[in-house]
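hey so i finaly got around to running the thing on Ribosomal RNA large subunit methyltransferase F from Mesoterricola sediminis. pasting the sequence first so u can double check i didnt mess up the copy paste, my clipboard has been acting weird all day
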Amino acid sequence: MRKLQPPATRPGLHPANPHRAPYAFEALVAAVPSLGPHVRRNPAGLPTIDFADPTAVRLLNRALLATTYGVRDWDLPEGYLVPPVPGRADTIHHLAGLFAAPRGLRVLEIGVGAGLIHPILGHAAYGWTFVGTDVDPAALASCRAILAANPALAAAVELRLQRDPGRIFEGVTAPGEAFDLSLCNPPFHASAAEAAEGTRRKWRNLGRRPPQARNFGGQGAELWCPGGETAFVTRMAEESARQPGLCTWFSSLVSRSENLPALRAAVLRAGATRLRILDMAQGQKRSRLLAWGFDPPAAT
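ok and heres what it spat out for the 3d tokens, dont ask me to read them lol
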């Protein structure tokens, strides 16, 4: 029987994404030896990990960030969302396509999280500088630990605590401050119960029994807010209308396609004069970015 060969690229990823090729597990394990015990063979005989195991994914992330981006000592506190590096890299490259000259942008990330993933990827790929905000002091403390271990990255990232969970841009930006781009991966569940059911559904889709512990990771603010992503991004659109000059492009990930019509309407209702929907894919997973902006008033 002919041995199956790994695909030349991962289907759907952005052409500029450095993670399109199959994972080079030998090099990854050499960089992070603790990843080794988690590597196993799939039915085709090819090396892989259990992507439902957050510890394995966290160690894979650490290895990818070390070998591809030169990041030292990356880690996450227990129980925080483990972001997939290839998917987050796709976000960066798709958003870069909004600009004719994407290098050196100043970027505002709403909800930077504990892993600092978007600033790491955006700075490495395009030399972007970041202001990262979050409502969670522990998440920002984790980001500071990553920055302390990586001085070159620390010079490109500023962290700010959002003290009011009901606000998004307001309270963390100064009057007259301006960015080229804002990005956000909003909490997409509407309640803690919905988030818990989402976790159970993931396990069922894998044909496995859900454990007592939450193995897909994520703190409350990472996973849910009242009204879910529709309410959150609608609020973002409303705040952007009050500060239209804050960003050349405002943007947010939209995880559920059925929410897109309402969010598109919210952005247009806020008075946006530019709107783009950027489709993304990683294997069978589909998502999209909603981006909008306000052109300055015409000179009289």
